[in-house]
Prior knowledge:
This protein has about 1350 residues and is α+β, with helices and mostly antiparallel strands. The chain has 36 helices and 61 strands.
Amino acid sequence: MPPPLQRAIQTNRDDEDGARGPTGLRLLHSSPEPLVDLIFVHGLRGGSVKTWRKGDDPRMFWPQLWLPMEPGLRNVNIHSFGYESDWASTKSSILNIHDFGQSLLEEMRNSPHLRENPYAYSASSPIVLLGHSMGGLVVKKDIPDFKSRIKCIFFLATPHRGSDYAAILNNILTASGIMSSRHYCTNDTAIFSFYETLRMNLGFSSSLIVEKSSAILGIPLQLLAPIRLICMDANHRDICRFGGVDDPNYITLKNALSSAIGDLLKDVSKSSREKSKDQMKVLNAYLGISDQPDDHFPAVNGSCQWIDSRDDFQDWRDPPNEFLLEEKDGVASRWPSIFWVHANPGAGKTYLAAHIVSELQHFQLECAYHFFHIGSKSSRSLGGFLRSMAYQIATANASIRQKLWSLQEEGSSFDMDDARTIWTKVFKKGIFQVVDAIDECNKRKARIPLRIFFTSRKMPDMQRLHRPLEDSAALTCIEIPVEDSIGDIECYINTRIENLPIDTVADKQDLADRILYKSNACFLWVRLVLDELEQVYSSESIVQVLQSIPEGMMPYYERTMRAMAENKLEKHIAQAVLIWTVASARNLTIAEPSRALNLDINTVLPSAKSAVEGLCGQLVSVSNSSGLVDLVHPTAREFLMSEAAGEFREHSPLLDYAITQFSEHIYSASAETDKLLLAIDRFFRTNVLSWIERVAHKGDLHYLIRASKNLKAYLDRRAKYRSPLNSQVRNIDSWSMDLSRIVAKFGTVLLQNPSSIYFIIPPLCPSGSAVYRQFGKRPDGLTVVGFKDGAWDDCIASVNFGEDSIPAAVSCEANLIAVGMESGDINLYNHRSCQKTKTIGHKYPVDLVHLTTRYVAACTTRSVVVRDLEGNTIWENRIRFRCSLLVSSGNTLIAVSQHGHLLKWELSSGALQDDQAFSYRSHDGETEPGAFASKAPSVASISPDTEMLALGYRGGAVCLWDIQACELTSWAVDEENKLASILILISTYKTMTDMGILSASCSPDGRTLAMIDAHGKLQVWDFESLSLLYHVLSPATSFRILSFTSDGSSIVNATDPTLRIWFPATLVRKNIEEDQSVSDDAAQLTSIEGQYESMRMSRITALCPHPSLSVAFAGKYTGQVIAFNTQTGQHISVLYSHSPTAFITHLAVGKNNIIASSDVNGGLQIWKLVPGQSSVTSCSQLLTTSLFAQITQLCFSSDGFFLLVATTRSDSVYSVTDGSRIGSLPFEHHERRVCRWVQGPSQGTEEQFLLLNNHTIKAYSANNFPTTTNNSEIRLEYELATSEKEISVRFTFIYAEAQILILEIYYNSGFINKLSIKSFKNNIKKL
């Protein structure tokens, strides 16, 4: 139901006479382009309203409220004729049908709307008459003055003729009380006769009031007027009353009216359009407007619903039913109505105005609109606005068009900017007008008597602007609520997100959520960001767009700065407000900047809120609810810190230098006094988070690493003069560790969202860190309960390759880690986030991999391949022998083959540049030349300058070669003739004697050596002094591959099947040149034992919550089953254990406090829990057994007394009461591609398990497993993208009350495994 109808309830309810409607001819609807007149005439005991309205609901008055909304009736003026037809009343009357017909004729003669229509194609427009019952007899009277204009008559159950005419009249008289009748004649018009088909209740009987034969008008044969006979599924009274716009009878009548009027307007519309076109050509020049407004702000589906539901807006939009309200002296008493909406800049005011325009146009209400643009001079002038409005109204309304055309014909002229003249001569009646951004208009004091909708920004003088309007108009002023603005923005994002070049629904939703989160209720920012996102295609570009200021925001901010600069008197106050707002670590309350400005610039603000909004209102907002001061959007902060902000830039000439270089001064300062120490300590206790945020905004976290190095070096030197045990030293030392670890653990997040350093990162840090102790327990911050590490773990990341993936080689460069696999794949990882970014496939297993800033080179068992970072092949060359070394220098790729050849290729083209052979030479001098020429080297290494080559052979000898001269320079011989397993910088193999070294690597700067032995002991050595700097014990494995990251800050350790990233604090140290640049002697290097909690001992392998208690159960790698409190995160107890060598694979808990667990060896245990008040106190064993297949799932029945155990071979159901097995369902492996058991709903006393297998669901009885409970299967229809492969169903849940099934599907998308949530409702009730 259209909103205007919903508001029609306001009409007054008079006595029964008033409810019939007024007498005489009244205009119900005035068309803006009237080409046809439609007149309704009621019947016996009816009324101009009562006959056409079902019941007393004014919304059912369809001639006035429904017909004008029909597209085919837009050019129709609608009238209703009322007369005193209640002849059974006590009032005496001598009037008859002839008198009523004569009264209708006189009313039509006197009507200004019917007497002459100067806006039609001719002096007279067609007339259509519609009469019900006796009203049809009234309209049949000969009306000489309008005979030529009456083109069509609709008769609704009108008694015309018939042999049983007297009986028909008697029926009518019985129903109405009429005691006499007469016969009437007909007109030569198109006839539509509608007849009733349902009997009407007459008290003691029911009957058709007007038979079909009488409802048909008889026309002489010589008259060729068309006749249409239509039946209605209604009785005599309801044939003209309808229950709604979807009532079949209304649709039949409405379609007939549209058809008849459409036929009449075939020629009329064409002639009218030609006349309108000619007039508008004249008005183009007269008004100085050439066309309709070209502003295009489409309404967004689902948005702005909040304003439609407001009573005050409905009062403005939907006026009372004017026809049912008595008019005085023919002139309606109307007050101008103004609805004024204000909000912060960019809050969506323009889109709200577009919504109002769209809504009014949808309801076919006369509407003209104007959008003021600050960048367009013509659109900002009041004269241009009025001329645009006049042109729009003239285009849509023939009356206004004729008035303006008449003014032009009379030679009347007016100044194009004279608003009063235009309003005086054109706008004579109240019509809808929508005006956007009136605050950008040059003149705001004009008083215009119209129904107007304004939008504007919040202005400090709003009350002053309202005051003169309140006495002369009904003024409503509101502010857009933030939560409603957020809702509109979400609708807008969802509408436009579909146009972005993103394939998956999940990725689109994730991006939509990120945009909404960063919007800060700023519609302008969202629109500009989406505009830019439509033009980018990579994930990196999307991130860049979200982190930068949209191009369209810069001009807006710059205009704001220019406007603020014009306020010479109080510009300094605006500057101070911006500085305090931007520089504060949190949002200030409105009272705080007031006090700050008093101390800062000696300024007192009597009304701080008015001052802030008045001076900086386009950039700073003050919350009405909380009183907090904040920038309108985070991009405003970025703008104010840039050069574009000009004199308002929140910046000091030394600010950037201080942010990035202050730690360098600390490092170079004297360590003998405590003055600097106290200042540093105070800084790290107060402003450190703001500094970290500023560094993150610069996009380079290396400054935090530098600060960590400098602080550590400063403390090491200070230890010579002062005790290192005081609190300040401990705090600074802790922060030197925290800075590097924050970069390592949270660097990616910090760059994406620098403000996360305040509330998100500190609570996630170890409890013993300085950042957690000082900032991790804020009352308004994130809270983490449960177990928490006390110190930073040196292993900052662990990535699992998968059970069948074995690494063969590792290389690091350009913030990437490349891992070559024996399968032939090369996985690329971001060394900060440790997320896989690409998988490059090869046909053959990878032996070696080498990463440069542009290429990935690999030696396989068959060839050398070079590809770009996107995986495109640059070149590939076959080789005869496998290689033992692969490095690059400039544009040259260098490989050493296993038969002692050094090969060089041009890296960009693959052209072979050199092939040198280096044969073994014995060091004892006794061997004949050539005796060992074919001896193959086992290991090889090249010096960083690519001038020296080292080849290691069995027997302990290492030959050192000058590559350019191809000459042997010396030997390196092991005293025990042991084979050198690793060569690094030619000479390091001696340090590995008797250590069982599996792998070693040198840092990029050549200062540090990392090695790991067969026991898992990772050691870091200083190369110059061969001093041990760091050691940590990690889980032992059969092989290791070590490599430093490109910045030397981390060590990559690849094992089977895990990639670990180590970040020892000892790697954060100054280089050799920096160490030598200070006057104080550096402290002696000390060895540090690393922090690493063994994953095998602590890893949780299964997790399950209790269905009713605040308890969660965890299965561990060690076979233990432990209970935790979910409210506090505290460990409750170890309930029981499996074998220490078998980790827990699955856990399940029934609602009857039965817990079941399985381990990797197929062990199954079932225990009875003993619950306390809110926890679990103990448990007792019910069943322990071992199955001969891997257990894949445990599932309890809904009552908890049956347990389903799924394995790789069969599914079995056990009774937990006595431990007996109910039954088993064996299957072949190919029958269960993607399957999952689900706890089914109870069927009386019978419990069910549901099997989801290959997109179908089948129900099985738990009591009589594996018997099915019914023979039907349910097919689940869902699809993944073509490139995506479904792997498994991870989680299933049935919401029995709503009959909804939810699935969590695990699938493979390229090189990334993803999760997707699917829900189903149809047909689930069959289960």
